[in-house]
Amino acid sequence: MPFFFNSCILCAFTTNYAGGSYNLPIIREMMNATTGINIGPGQMLDIGERNFNLLRIHSAEEGYTRSKDKLPKRFNEVLPRGASTGSPISEDKIEEAIDEYYELRGWEEEGPSAEKLRSLGMGEVVKYIE
């Protein structure tokens, strides 16, 4: 939902502070009154996802692609105490998780796939990624 809030120019921190069950219906009502369109919860998620994919396209244009999606080396270090003591996360596992994330998002190395953009009703944007 944060990307929906961002597209409304609302602070995700303050809108989440009171909890979604309180804020989301109010924000939805506000959007419906402002636009005259009856936006449902699913559409709010779709708007946020389109926003997030546009952000990712822009990031790719600036050189931020899959090859730069890395976690700090600190994540590979052995933890001195706690539930995961002595069990660092291997770089391979991190890369595997990031690859899975990309797959779930419908992204390729350079960002959102043409298929993903079309599924979001963003076919007109495809020409900018090809």
UniProtKB/TrEMBL annotation:
Entry coiled-coil feature ranges: none
InterPro entries per record: Ald_Fedxn_OxRdtase_dom3, OxRdtase_Ald_Fedxn_C, Tungsten_al_ferr_oxy-like_C, W-dependent_AOR
SUPFAM superfamilies, per the entry: Aldehyde ferredoxin oxidoreductase, C-terminal domains
Domain (Aldehyde ferredoxin oxidoreductase C-terminal) ranges: 4-122
Signal peptide: none
Single GO MF descriptor: electron transfer activity
Protein's UniProt name: Aldehyde ferredoxin oxidoreductase C-terminal domain-containing protein
Annotated organism of origin: candidate division MSBL1 archaeon SCGC-AAA259J03
